[in-house]
Design brief:
458 residues; 10 strands; 43% helix; Serine Threonine Protein Phosphatase 5, Tetratricopeptide repeat; single chain; two-stranded antiparallel ribbon
Length: 458
């Protein structure tokens, strides 16, 4: 970014007058001068600024295969959504700035501001716990943002090419003169692991019952487990999932959840470890959409006694099924971390490590909370491969509309479990081949122009 643009962002909360009216810090107007958070209270307020820190990219979910739209409805979509749906080479058309790129970097900048300011504070004994938790939260949020960027703007992890595949720029300070070019995929994942491993002992060990936008130690372990899974480090994924579930392992019995409500969950469901939602400007990703339909083959995988069939989906018209509000309790889709994902991460890791019985134990622990009482028959597996196949089927069914399907497709394709995606719009047929360059989104043109980054091939 151009220096002057970064400087304006660097003054951070000067532009956040809409966020909170409780302190002068967040009440400052843009023309009131440069304001940097200097107290722990100010830093906590900045981390709690939900108009920045509760969003993650949505491009991948729009390009994935859990839904479809009809031709007439597709024509009415904004240009970027039409292009994403058919995997166009130029999905941005004339749009220069894209929030899927810029917002995570805004989050990273705010985290860097906080981390730098924390080093200037010598906390009193009564402040030490808060100081440590704020530092852990800033490291977690930086890792979470970088993870979203890598999943969208870099190739899937491949151990044979990770040192040459281009990731995204890693930004670890607020020096606008020291912004790097693109780091490698390995360097990006190394940074994510480093931030999270440093954050774990700093963060509080309990999950907030309401303020799920505040990171916790279980949430950090959950993101470590997800990252290890995405990088094919299955023994580590199992250990991190173990650590998370030892601290917090709550699952919701779906027999206690309304099957008729379009809002079956509130904003802080018990399974939620960390709250994040997809960028809310995309029409397709709205859970109140009457033109975004669940993929028919996917919907038909849910048995009649599987409560997810009624809790996740609603009838829109005829056989066209739409989505209900998920773990956000709102019209945006949940992209955060939750215990159901952690159970599935551990089950997959166990299956890939050859431990079929243990994998099925985890999977059945989840599923018995998803089926109508008295109807669930525990699943069994005759081999690790059979266990893995069953886990992956349930992973898709359980984590539908959660911002994970795109990354799953990318890693499955790399592992040889290839899928060719197809869209039909009238007589037009569009396909996305396994490992296509289009699985890596283009970097927005304003960033290319300002920072001279190498563009992703499309």
């Amino acid at each position: 970014m151009k220096k002057q643009i970064i400087v304006y962002v660097f003054i951070a909360v000067c532009v956040m007058q809409v966020a909170c009216n409780k302190t002068e810090f967040l009440d400052q107007k843009p023309n009131s001068g440069i304001i940097i958070p200097t107290t722990l209270t100010d830093m906590r307020l900045l981390l709690d600024y939900t108009q920045v820190f509760t969003f993650s990219p949505g491009l991948g979910e729009m390009a994935a295969d859990d839904y479809y739209v009809l031709p007439a409805n597709w024509q009415a979509l904004p240009a970027i959504e039409r292009s994403s749906y058919i995997w166009d080479a130029d999905i941005y058309t004339n749009q220069q700035s894209v929030s899927d790129w810029s917002l995570p970097y805004q989050q990273i900048l705010y985290c860097n501001i906080i981390l730098e300011q924390l080093e200037k504070i010598n906390p009193a004994s009564t402040e030490l716990t808060e100081w440590r938790d704020i530092k852990g939260a800033a490291l977690f949020a930086r890792a979470f943002a970088l993870s979203g960027l890598v999943q969208h703007f870099a190739p899937a992890f491949d151990s044979s090419t990770m040192t040459s595949d281009l990731g995204v720029p890693i930004r670890l300070n607020t020096d606008v003169k020291n912004y790097s070019q693109r780091n490698t995929v390995k360097e990006c994942y190394d940074q994510i692991f480093s931030d999270l491993q440093t954050a774990v002992p700093l963060l509080l060990p309990s999950v907030p019952p309401i303020a799920k936008n505040r990171p916790s130690r279980p949430a950090a372990y959950a993101l470590l487990a997800r990252t290890a899974l995405f990088t094919s480090q299955y023994a580590q994924a199992k250990l991190y999932a173990d650590s998370c579930l030892q601290l917090y392992n709550t699952l919701i019995d779906y027999n206690t959840v309304s099957t008729s409500s379009v809002t079956p969950f509130d904003r802080s469901p018990q399974e939620s470890l960390y709250y994040s939602q997809a960028i809310s400007s995309y029409t397709i990703l709205s859970t109140i959409s009457t033109t975004t339909f669940v993929d028919t083959l996917l919907y038909n995988q849910y048995a009649n006694n599987d409560l997810r069939r009624a809790i996740f989906f609603r009838t829109i018209s005829g056989n066209n099924m739409g989505f209900k509000r998920g773990y956000t309790g709102a019209i945006t889709i949940f992209t955060g971390l939750a215990t159901n994902e952690v159970y599935l991460i551990r089950a997959e890791a166990l299956a890939r490590l050859g431990q079929a019985t243990a994998a099925m134990t985890d999977l059945n622990s989840l599923l018995r909370n998803r089926w109508r009482t008295g109807t669930f028959i525990p699943l069994t597996a005759i081999s690790p491969a059979d266990a893995l196949a069953k886990v992956l089927v349930e992973r898709r069914k359980e984590l539908v509309w959660r911002g994970l399907r795109w990354q799953d497709l990318k890693r499955y394709n790399k592992q040889g479990q290839t899928t060719t995606l197809t869209r039909l719009l009238g007589t037009s047929r569009y396909t996305l081949s396994p490992n296509s360059n289009k699985y890596v989104f283009a970097i927005p043109q304003d960033e290319i122009s300002q920072s001279n980054l190498i563009q992703n091939p499309r």
